[in-house]
Each structure stands twice: as structure tokens, then as C-alpha cells.
């Protein structure tokens, strides 16, 4: 496949690579293209910059007290060793170091297993909504388990007081579907309809509407300012 002259495909693959949704042979093939294509590397870097605000959506997780107790229990015996005994012979030292590394690895694995339930709270879908100059305005995430949309403002031009921003699902078939109004400062938390998944809705968009939203429930009446692909994570 030659993607050098296919701008739309290059942009799509760069976005999927940055998100981590490009996997297997397709990812390896894309990485081989990256080695030879500086413009493609720039496209990936631009996507990474756009997606960077997603890190702010991930709340910090404090490990449970039992994790720290396990770590302390795992390393406490080594503190009773005399420093001279550690260095007594090089062979003993390397045996000790290997055992210590194994113990630390085991503890880290335990931490990951304990934190596994937190993965369930991670977003299922994401869309980076930008303007025609690729300037990111909103990041939208969807939680398929809680059926909730979270809209975060990244950078946004001033919106007239008598206008509203409205979020739309753009399905493969049929008319656009309103998902709700957005706060130009704080974004929004909106319900996620059951059928608004990347399988049936490949893209989201934001339009500028009269105050209170579009008078037409089936389509924007004002200009579409921002749009982006709706992707699984």
C-alpha cells in the first residue's frame, strides 16, 4: 500500500497510531513508513500534541494501603543485612541483586493486578474535535459502561452570548443527531445514547446555533465549527 499521496489516509493512520488503536501488522507497517517519511512523523507528533490534554482526564489513583504494606514487607528483610555482607563477595552480591530485582518485579505485578479494576473506569471512545486548521477545540470521551459523555474544552474562540454550541453525532446513515449543548468554558457531561458507538457513528461535530440550540432537531442550522473521528480506545 502506498499512502504517500493519500492525505486523508495518512491523517487517519497517524491519529490511530497516536491513540494506540493501530495494532498488529498494521502498526508495524506504519512504523516502517515512519522511518522513511518525515512528514508522516510530523503528523503523528501533531496528533500526540492534540491528544495530550487527555492525560488530564485521567484521575490520579492512590494505591491502597495494602500495596504499601506489601512493598514494605518485601524490602524490610534487606535492611537488616549489614552493608559489608552485601559487598562481601561479588558472586553473593549479584545473587542478592537478582533476588531483589525479582522481588520488586513481583511487587510491581501485584500493584498492577490490584489496580486492574480501575481500567473499567477508563473511557471507551474518544474524539478530538478541531477546526479546519487542525486546531483542537474539544476532546470528547465516552464511557460505554456508565453511558456517559464527557466534553473537555481545550482551546476555543470566543462565542457570542446569543449563540450556543451544540454537539452532534454524525451516523453512517440517516440524519445528524443532537447530543446536547456545550458550555464554552466548562464543556459538558452528557448522556451517551446506546447506539452512539464508532461502529454506527464514525464522527462527531460541533455547530454554532441560536441560543438554546438548533431549531431543527435533525440537523445543524448554523455553521459546523469543529469535527473529528469518533474512535474506540
Automatic annotation (TrEMBL):
Residues 100-224 form the Anti-sigma K factor RskA C-terminal domain. It is found in: Cell membrane; Membrane. GO terms for biological process: regulation of translation. One of its GO terms (molecular function) is sigma factor antagonist activity. Keywords: Cell membrane, Membrane, Transmembrane, Transmembrane helix. The lineage of its organism: Bacteria, Pseudomonadati, Pseudomonadota, Betaproteobacteria, Burkholderiales. One of its GO terms (cellular component) is plasma membrane. This is Regulator of SigK.
Amino acid at each position: 500500500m502506498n499512502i504517500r499521496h493519500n492525505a486523508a489516509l495518512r491523517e487517519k493512520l497517524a491519529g490511530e497510531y497516536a491513540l494506540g488503536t493501530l495494532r498488529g501488522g498494521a502498526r508495524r507497517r506504519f512504523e516502517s513508513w515512519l522511518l522513511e517519511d518525515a512528514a508522516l512523523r510530523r503528523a503523528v507528533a501533531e496528533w500526540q500534541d492534540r491528544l495530550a490534554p487527555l492525560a488530564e482526564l485521567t484521575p490520579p489513583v492512590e494505591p491502597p494501603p495494602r500495596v504499601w504494606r506489601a512493598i514494605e514487607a518485601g524490602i524490610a528483610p534487606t535492611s537488616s543485612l549489614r552493608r559489608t555482607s552485601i559487598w562481601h563477595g561479588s558472586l553473593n552480591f549479584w545473587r542478592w541483586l537478582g533476588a531483589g530485582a525479582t522481588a520488586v518485579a513481583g511487587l510491581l505485578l501485584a500493584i498492577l493486578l490490584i489496580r486492574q479494576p480501575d481500567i473499567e473506569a477508563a473511557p471507551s471512545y474518544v474524539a478530538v474535535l478541531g477546526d479546519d486548521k487542525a486546531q483542537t477545540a474539544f476532546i470528547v470521551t465516552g464511557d460505554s459502561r456508565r453511558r456517559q459523555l464527557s466534553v473537555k474544552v481545550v482551546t476555543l474562540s470566543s462565542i457570542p452570548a446569543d449563540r450556543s454550541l451544540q454537539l452532534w453525532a454524525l451516523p453512517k446513515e440517516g440524519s445528524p443527531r443532537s447530543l446536547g449543548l456545550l458550555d464554552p468554558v466548562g464543556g459538558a457531561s452528557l448522556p451517551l445514547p446506546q447506539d452512539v458507538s464508532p461502529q454506527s457513528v464514525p464522527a462527531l461535530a460541533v455547530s454554532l446555533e441560536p441560543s438554546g440550540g438548533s431549531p431543527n432537531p435533525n440537523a445543524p442550522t448554523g455553521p459546523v465549527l469543529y469535527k473529528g473521528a469518533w474512535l474506540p480506545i
